[in-house]
Write a structure and sequence with these properties.
Layout (H helix, E strand, L loop, with lengths): L2 H24 L16 E4 L5 E4 L6 E7 L4 H16 L4 E7 L7 H4 L6 E3 L3 H7 L6 E5 L5 E6 L4 H7 L5
Parallel strand pairs: 3-4, 4-5
Antiparallel strand pairs: 1-2, 3-6, 6-7
């Protein structure tokens, strides 16, 4: 192969790699969780008891959201851990569970949940937050800014970081 044709081949290979990497970046699936720095808007929803709730994020506030599904075995593993963290939480930390599915009959009689549970305000709202997988533990600061999060079953030490005192 002549020097000129080898350089043409290398240039073509490099161009192909660049094009492939660009196509791969465009083909990435949407995020499955919110990201640090994202903003959760103020929203209204209902508790599982049917009472209305307004969730806002005033100055100096911290809120931990516990996103789960009644049909999720990993969520069932997290509920006792969330209960313990909720019982030990600082009193100025707001904690709410967000149920993403319709619970089956008898669910509340079979599983003890210590924290308040609200119904998700809808699929479009969850999609706008990139809440696509559970269990998701999400710490939000004033103005609704996401400060920290973890997806999946979490050990008690990591959970303690998410439930840390408000500073």
């Amino acid at each position: 192969m002549s020097r000129l044709s080898l350089s043409h081949v290398l240039a073509a290979v490099a161009a192909g790699l660049i094009a492939a990497s660009g196509a791969a970046a465009q083909a990435l699936p949407p995020p499955t969780t919110p990201s640090k720095g994202d903003v959760i808007p103020v929203f209204d929803t209902l508790g599982v008891d049917g009472k209305p709730w307004k969730l806002d994020f005033p100055r100096g506030s911290k809120t931990v959201f516990l996103f789960f599904m009644s049909s999720c075995p990993s969520c069932h593993k997290m509920i006792p851990e969330w209960n313990r963290a909720y019982e030990r939480r600082p009193k100025d930390l707001k904690v709410v569970g967000i149920l993403l599915d319709q619970e089956p009959p008898g669910f509340w009689g079979t599983i003890a949940i210590a924290f308040p549970v609200l119904r998700a305000p809808g699929r479009e709202f969850l999609r706008s937050l990139n809440v696509n997988r559970v269990p998701l533990t999400l710490r939000v600061g004033e103005g609704g800014r996401v400060e920290d999060l973890t997806l999946g079953v979490v050990d008690p030490i990591r959970l303690g970081e998410l439930f840390a005192p408000v500073k």
